[in-house]
Design brief:
The structure holds two protein chains of two kinds. By secondary structure, chain A is mainly alpha-helical. Chain A has a single domain (3-142), classed as Globin-like, CATH 1.10.490.20. Chain A is built from nine helices and no strands. Chain A is globular, with a radius of gyration of 15 Å. Chain A starts with a helix and ends in a 9-residue tail after the last helix. Chain B folds into two domains: 8-77, Methyltransferase, Methionine Synthase (B12-binding Domains), Chain A, domain 1 (Orthogonal Bundle), CATH 1.10.1240; 88-209, Cobalamin-binding domain (Rossmann fold, 3-Layer(aba) Sandwich), CATH 3.40.50.280. Helices cover 51% and strands 13% of the residues of chain B. Chain B is built from eight helices and five strands. Chain B has helices at 8-12, 16-28, 33-53, 59-79, 102-113, 127-137, 152-165, 198-209, and strands at residues 88-94, 116-122, 141-145, 170-174, 192-194. In chain B, strand 1, helix 5 and strand 2 form a beta-alpha-beta unit. In chain B, helix 4 (59-79) runs parallel beside helix 5 (102-113) and helix 5 (102-113) packs parallel to helix 8 (198-209). The longest helix of chain B is centred in the N-terminal third of the chain and has 21 residues, at 33-53. Chain B is globular, with a radius of gyration of 17 Å. The chains are: A mainly alpha, B alpha/beta. Bound molecules: cobalamin.
Amino acid sequence: MDYKYLAETAGKIPAADKNAVNEYREKSEYLIAGINKSMSERHDLKELIGENNLAMMKDNHANHVRFIHSILKNPNAEVLTDTVLWVFRAYQNHGFAANYWAAQLNSWFHILKRELSPESYRQIIPLYEWMQVNIPLFEKLSNKTTEPGLSNH
Amino acid sequence: MATENPILKPLLSGNHKASSKIVTDMMSESVPVKEIYERVLKPALYEVGELWEQNKISVATEHLASAIVESLMNEIYLQLRTSKKPEKTAVVTCLENEHHQIGARMVSDIFELNGWNVYFLGANTPQNDLLNYIRMVKPQLVAISLSIYFHLPTLESTLNQISSEFPKLQVLIGGQAFLRGALKILSNYPGITYLPDLNAIENFLIQYKHGL
Ligand code: B12
């Protein structure tokens, strides 16, 4: 039910145009550097990501940008939903706190605004808004599907 | 779904000898290589992935297990004997930034067992180098493996280049990225075939031999 809701709403996220997708890709290194810096400077970082997880956090940010570029280019509601669920599950199992997602997404909004042109920002932000408003649902669903076999790989 | 896969324990504890014995015993019982890959090594690695995801094993243990599997595949490879003289050539590769190469290696071995001459380019092959290689060896077929969904844009740009420069070249694609919906993009590439596993590849090769 919740999954269906996520996949359905993911399917309704307006597609970004080619220019916006290209700009996102061209600026990916700045985006990754920006999010790494802003998260690393937080005083509560340890509470958000747990002990010894800095490298894993940076991996997540780099993979995030590659994945979002891929989804902007080829929108696919199911892949988007499954992958966000996988990320929540895998990272929380490794000691990331539930609050990490809210903190990370908040930072993304600032960084995207700073780095992208206003038009590209407007085109891309609905996808981030979708992730942000659905944090509680992702939280709930990812905790449910930890048994092997249900996680798609 | 904890399967009783006897090789999992030795892989996780780094016991190369015990892992190797399981494989060599199967070889001496004439279990086909394809079965060893599909029924033993692949499920063990999938389980390793689950265990990593659940934080039940470390990245180091995951690396150890996959390194042992690769060395078992080397042992198996040494025993691959085909009397057939290769008539056809295939290039088997992973895309740029794609570091999962074990599935592609298995694919490559199945081609060899079916009498093909194979160039296995392995993980993280830059797009231009792949294209140059195709120009150089002029294969009948290229097989591309993709595990991570976010490499889809690279796959698309590679497929675009291949189909414009080598419109007649047979292209196969596979790997776990396609379990997650990536198959949708295939509607843009009618000549390209997706196959899920080694059984499907073997069937495909048999048909190919008989003129498809
Ligand atoms: C070993 C491993 C690694 C090793 C790979 C080492 C190596 N030498 O290959 C390393 C450490 C490099 C690695 C890295 C990462 N990994 Co990894 N890895 C795995 C693991 C445990 C096993 C992979 C494997 O060999 N499987 C066995 C092979 C035989 O299966 P296969 O690839 O599916 O191949 C079969 C078919 O798909 C098909 N096939 C494959 N290729 C082709 C090609 C053609 C043409 C055809 C027809 C068929 C075909 O035939 C094969 C036989 O049936 C998997 C778990 C899993 N489920 O597989 C995770 C997994 C794939 N990895 C994962 C992740 C997330 C990563 C990283 C992003 C981690 C990180 N945060 O950095 C990086 C990405 C690196 C990159 N840029 O590519 C996730 C992917 C999740 C997702 N949502 O997509 C998995 C599923 C783990 C998990 N459960 O979370 N990984």
